[in-house]
Amino acid sequence: MSEAGVGEVKASEIGELADQFLKACLKHKILAATAESCTGGLIIAAMTDIPGSSSMVDRGFVTYSNDAKMELLGVSPVTLDAHGAVSAETAQEMAAGALARSHAGIALAVTGIAGPDGGSPDKPVGLVWFGLAMTGQRVVTEKRAFENRGRDYIRRQTVRHALEMGLKALDED
Fold it and tell me: Are the C-beta atoms of residues 129 and 110 closer than 8 Å to each other?
């Protein structure tokens, strides 16, 4: 069993993923941006923990409320009314909005239910939608249903997956 326990995400693992992601951004000569809801800025924090990250990070949008999603990222109220904040459509608009409202070439977006409250049968605690936007490409969304092992666990898994998603997109580009 690892120090953090089976299935746990260590801070060192997140730091290593953030470092790899930023090195890939540097290689592609692009800046990164984030649009975060359920993680409350943990993704951008992992990136900016790395010395020298200012040459690869443009900005992070923490858009916890629906108003913030609309005002800062341009998420449509129609999308929020029809699909809710935790949906593929909202994740897609968050990623596209972060890309459009920054100088970044890649934007990572997350919206989900970290718990312990807020879940429903259709959208349980642990459900997270991810969006990834890159200049000149269509926005990609992914859905993950993390085991409800507590708020911290879900948020760390979300950060890990977002960074892995970004790294994979840059490696394929």
Answer: yes
